[in-house]
Amino acid sequence: MQAKQLEEALQTAINFVNKGHFYVAEDQLSTLAHEPRNATRIRQQALSYLTLLYLNKDNPRASTSRATRSLDQLNVLHNGRQNEQTVLFEALGYVLEARILLEQAQRQADISQQRQQQLEQEIQALQLALDKLRQLSLQ
User: Fold this and answer.
1) DSSP state of 38
2) CB–CB of 23/46 below 8 Å?
3) Are 39 and 6 within 8 A, CB to CB?
4) Cα-based angle 115, 117, 122 (whole degrees, multiple of 5)
5) 66: exposed, middle or buried (Cβ count in 10 Å: 0-12, 13-18, 19+)
6) How far apart are CA 40 and CA 15, in angstroms?
């Protein structure tokens, strides 16, 4: 594809993301991310949007592992060069790290809630047993 066609394809994919058409956007962004080597800027942008797409909680295919994979690909493409994409790359890394920490905290909260429910059930069972013992002792 020519540069203008690539730009248009990228803009179309971004529009699909904005409209919530995540599967189509993912397909188009993945295709753009694997363009030939001379389309580095388009590939970087596609990988950046792909990372954000995978971090979007509204996306049914949201996944920190997919986001990590696309960010890793962006890192390889970036290859330590300082350019306008550096800040974006670092920001994506921070967002990914925050999402992972949020998911870990959510898992811990879920575990705590399950444990609390289990303890409440055990307390109720003990209270019932205690009530039965009182009734038996009064007989």
Assistant:
1) G
2) no
3) yes
4) 95
5) middle
6) 21
Residue 31 half-sphere exposure, CB side, CA atoms within 13 Å? 14
Tell me the torsion sign for CA atoms 61, 87, 7, 47: negative
What is the model's pTM? 0.74
Helices marked H in the chain — which ranges? 3-18, 22-33, 40-55, 64-78, 85-138
d(CA 94, CA 116): 32
Chain centroid to Cα 75, Å, comes to 18
At 10-68, the pLDDT tens digits run 999 999 999 999 999 999 999 999 887 677 888 989 999 999 999 999 999 999 999 99
